[in-house]
Design goal:
Blueprint lengths: L7 E7 L2 E6 L2 E6 L8 H23 L6 E10 L7 E11 L4 H15 L1 H5 L5 E8 L1
Parallel strand pairs: 5-6
Antiparallel strand pairs: 1-2, 2-3, 4-5
């Protein structure tokens, strides 16, 4: 069963800001990152969100009770145009009695199989992951 297409509609609101609408949800994209995330910030958030949701889903399906999950993404960008990501570090902090191998497996499955955002990005980006259990 295929997923329906993603439709994003943008309307210019002045300067380099746009109202972006996806499925009746509207948010602001701002090149300066003042009134909303920049497009690159939104991409970083999408990647962190996609992998976080995968990890939460995989841990839940594996019956690993966690009480908290926090992710920090740091994206290094190339110096020259188009200033795309060259290295991304994703750190996952899981709270609860979850075995380290289960977290490691969830991160690997997200990266290698499930995260559609990661698989939509350039594959020459270095992605480093780490985790901790609190």
């Amino acid at each position: 069963m295929s997923k329906p297409p993603t439709v994003a509609e943008l309307a210019w609101t002045g300067d380099l800001t746009f109202a972006a609408t996806i499925n009746d949800i509207t948010f602001t994209l701002d090149s300066a990152g003042v009134r909303g995330p920049s497009p690159v910030g939104a991409l970083a958030s999408a990647l962190a969100g996609c992998m976080s949701m995968d990890i939460a889903h995989i841990l839940t399906r594996g019956r690993h009770p966690f009480t908290g999950l926090a992710v920090r993404l740091v994206g290094e960008r190339q110096k020259d145009d188009p200033h795309c990501f060259s290295h991304i570090t994703l750190h996952v902090a899981v709270q609860g009695a979850v075995p380290a191998d289960a977290v490691e497996r969830a991160i690997a499955l997200s990266r290698e199989k499930y995260c559609s955002v990661w698989h939509s990005m350039r594959q020459d980006i270095v992605l480093t992951t780490s985790f901790e259990i609190r």
